[in-house]
Amino acid sequence: MSNITIKKGMRIYLIGIGGVSMSGIAHMLLREGCVVSGSDRSSSTATEKLSALGVTVHIGHDADNVKDCDLIVYSAAIGENNPERMRAKELGIPQIDRAQMLGTIMKEYDCPIAISGTHGKTTTSGMLTHVFMECGKNPTVTVGGELDIIHGNVHLGGKEYFIAEACEYHQSFLRFFPKISVITNIEADHLDYFRDLDHIIETFRSLALLTPDDGALIVNGEDENIKKALDGIDRKIITFGTHSDCDYTIDNMTHNGYNHYSFTVCKNGKPLGEIRLSVPGIHNVYDALAAFAAADYVGIDPEDICDSLYRFGGTHRRFETRGIMGGIMVVDDYAHHPTEIRATLSAARDMKYENIWCLFQPHTYTRTYNFFDDFVKVLSESGANIIITDIYAAREVDTGLVSAQQLANAIPNAVYKKTFEDAAEFIKAQAKRGDIVITMGAGDVYKVGDILLSHDE
């Protein structure tokens, strides 16, 4: 369906309602006066919050759940063979995917801002949200991680600004209607859907073409794949990066012993302010530049932007400090792509801990198989002690093509631990005071941190 109008009283059923984006959509639809219900395969904090607001949430998918609905919305993980979707088709109930619903909602805002890119989009979205909230812009927000300033991953603000993390998987963001599009970088990923890197570049080009003539593209001016995507496009393009030919650049960069960077941000060579980051790693410098450029474009005072970025403490699951166990720092990070892993472990190395213990949970069989050699290379060269646990399947099934044990065997001195309990016991026995433990991956590996810290009580 191409044209959907959301009306008060409309009965909308969300399949996969507990997902990060889907739960955010549920909150937005509630504000519009819709009668919201939905289902998910298991209960979660997100489903519990929705239930407390009067949303009927079914655990498990049953065809009878949808019989009285006006519209079905489904997440990317829900296939056509889902019993609720099949029943809705029999009943003639319209169905749209998550991205189309989000795009439909987005059209109601004056200035939608889409934050996209292979890496860094959650942190950049978080930084921009933090700046907008502190500077009184009160945006509506949907982001792929939890932010303390909005107490979750969604915020129902005014109808002027809409900050949306925009994912390229299944070309979802092509259903959006951004006035400002931020692209942090473009790299190969999601090769279970995309044919190759060229297909990904073409998709980002299509996103850029969605930007209206009175809007802007704010992009990493050093990324060669972004340059390919934007070649010949007649849109307002604003660049950020460390190169002097970018519109927004940095000068006088330093970092402290905690790998927190400070630098002067310049626009067309003119200093605008001093940014001090409270999140570690050079990759966050680029994210901060992107957020600064977007905030400056809409007219927020540069000094206020700098002050707000200093107070940004990070997004949950992005180098998030979980606690201290017997003098050992326990951190969790969402990194699940080789480039992200390299950035996270590089940040940890610069923080001068005695030893780094990285418990990596690969995310999906397809990604593990397609990037197997890259995972081996980046983990082997990291200088960290590597523990591998079983692959988090997410939307996939195990075909026997690749395994966590194979990955561990290919990495010198890495060990494989099948269960979280075994991994926690191994780390507890090996790590010493002054070390850092990083649970890493986009699945549920963070639970090992819970185990470790509970043992320390």
Q: Work out the oligomeric state of the chains in this entry.
A: single chain
Report the total helices: 15
Low-confidence stretches: none
Q: Estimate the global geometry from the Cα principal axes.
A: globular
Main pleated sheet:
7 strands, mixed
Rg, nearest Å: 22 Å
Instruction: Specify the structural class.
Output: alpha/beta
Your description of this structure?
The protein has 457 residues and is an alpha/beta fold. The chain has helices at residues 20-31, 45-52, 83-91, 98-106, 121-134, 197-210, 224-230, 283-297, 302-311, 338-350, 365-370, 372-380, 404-410, 420-430, 446-455, and strands at residues 11-15, 35-40, 56-59, 71-74, 95-97, 111-116, 140-147, 152-155, 161-165, 180-183, 216-220, 237-240, 248-255, 260-267, 270-280, 320-325, 328-333, 356-360, 385-388, 415-416, 436-440. Helices cover 34% and strands 25% of the residues. It has a seven-stranded mixed sheet, sandwiched between helices. Strands 16-17-21-18-19-20 form a six-stranded mixed sheet, with helices on both faces. The chain has a five-stranded parallel sheet with strand order 3-2-1-4-5, with helices on both faces. Strand 1 (11-15), helix 1 and strand 2 form a beta-alpha-beta unit. Helix 8 (283-297) packs antiparallel against helix 9, helix 10 (338-350) packs parallel to helix 12 and helix 14 crosses helix 15 (446-455). The protein is globular. The N and C termini lie far apart (54 Å). The mean pLDDT is 93.
